[in-house]
Amino acid sequence: MVKFWSSITAFFRRVFSPPKRPIRLTKGGWIFILYTIGVGAGAINTGNNLLYLLFGVFLGFIMASGVLSDTNLWRVKPDILFPDHGEAQEPTALFLKLTNRKKWFPVVSVTAHIMGTLHGRPVKLEVFFPFIAAGSSLKREVVLSPKDRGFLEIQKIYLFTRFPFGLLWKRWTIWDGRGGMFIYPRLLPSLEENFALFSQRMEQDVPADILGDGSAAGGIREFKPGDNPKKIHWKASAKRNRGVEDEQEWFLKEMERDGIKEVFLSWPEWETLANMNPSEFENFIRFTATFVWDLKKAGHKIWLLVFAGSGGPVYCVGGSREGAGVSSIMEFLSIFEPGHAKDVFSHYLEPVHDTYSIELREKAIPMGQRFNRWKGEVTVGARN
C-alpha cells in the first residue's frame, strides 16, 4: 500500500512539477501568434466557419510545436571524450557524444552548448547535431583554443532546439556534473634548436654523477697506447689477426655514454616566485614546462623539487611518486599559482626527508639560473 501511494505521489510530482526548462518564442513564433489571434478575432466577428477551421489549425501547430520539441530533447545521454591534455593557445579537440535513448523518436536539429571554466574565466563551446536516429549515437568534434593554462572544468551541457516549426526556443539541461582536462602551459620554441640550452650544454647543466659511465657498445676502433686493455674486443681482434703472426692489430670496444636516467630540477623558493611580475612568472612556467618536455622526449625520468622557503620543507613532484612522472609535473605547472595556499597542490607535493633533501639540492639543476641565462640569450638574440 505504501509503495502504491509513493508511485502515485511521484506521478503527480512529475506532472505538476516538471523539470524547469527555459522556453521562449522566436521572432517567427511571435508573428505566428499575432496571426493566430487575428484569425481568431476574425472568426468571432464574422462567424465564418473557414476562419474557425484555420484558427484551430494554427492552435494545433502551436500545441504540436510544444509537444514535439519536448520529445526531441528528452532521454538524451551525453558523454564527453577528453584528450590526455591540451596546450594553451593551441587548438585542442574534444568530442561530445550524444546517445538517443528513445525507442521510436529521433533527435532532430539540436545544438549543444558546453559550459565550463578555465583559470576563473567562463568557457562556452557550441556544436550542432543535425539528426540522431532512435537508439543510436552521434559523436561530433569540438575545437577550442584556450588562452590560458589551468584545468578546464566542464560544468553543464545544455541542449537547444527550435524543432519542428521554429516557433519555440527550448533548452534542456542534460549534464550537471563535473569533468575536464588539464591545459598545459604553452611550450616555448625548442630550447634545443633555438637557444642551444639543452643538447649543447647538458653536460654543464647536469652533474657528472648523473650521466653514468656507459654500458652500450657503440662500435670498435684500433687500440691506442693508454687505452684500457680490459675494453679490447677479443673476437674482432682474433678475426682480424687470423693467420697473421707479426704486427698483430688489436681493436677496442667503444662504449656509448648512457642517456640520463634521472634528472632533478630545483625551483626557486616559493617567495621568489611570488615576487615575480605576472609576465615573467608565466615565462618561467613555460620555460620549465619546455625543459621538462625536452627531457621527456630524451627518455629521462624527472623530479621537480619545490622549496617552501629558506630552511623550510622540500617537496618533490614527479618521478619519486609511484606511477607519477612527467604528467604529474605538467599538471602541477598547469595549475600552480604562488599566491595560492599549498593545500591546493597537496596532491602533487610529496615531502622529502631532511637528510635526503641536502643530497637532492646538490645534484639538482637550478631552474632559476637556467631561466636567467635563457632570458639573456633571448635578449641578445633580439638585439642582434
Could you please describe the fold and organization of this structure?
This protein is α+β, with helices and mostly antiparallel strands and 384 residues long. 37% of the residues lie in helices and 30% in strands. It folds into three domains: 15-184, Immunoglobulin-like; 191-209 and 260-383, no CATH class; 215-256, no CATH class. It is built from twelve helices and 17 strands. The strands form four sheets. Strands 1, 3, 5, 6, 8, 9 and 10 form a seven-stranded mixed beta sheet that branches. A hairpin with a 6-residue loop joins strand 8 and strand 9 (168-175). The longest helix has 25 residues, at 49-73. The model is unreliable at 192-218, 320-324 and 379-384 (pLDDT under 50).
Distance between the termini: 89 Å
Q: At the first level of CATH, what is the class of the largest domain?
A: Mainly Beta
Instruction: Specify Rg, calculated over alpha carbons.
Output: 34 Å
CATH superfamily of the largest domain: Immunoglobulins
In this structure, how is the largest beta sheet organized? 7 strands, mixed
The count of strands amounts to 17
Report the average pLDDT across residues.
77
CATH fold-level label of the largest domain = Immunoglobulin-like
* Approximate strand percentage: 25-35%
- Based on Cα principal axes, name the global outline: elongated
SS class: alpha+beta
**What's the architecture of the largest domain in CATH terms?**
Sandwich
List the quaternary state of the chains.
Answer: single chain
* Count of helix runs: 12
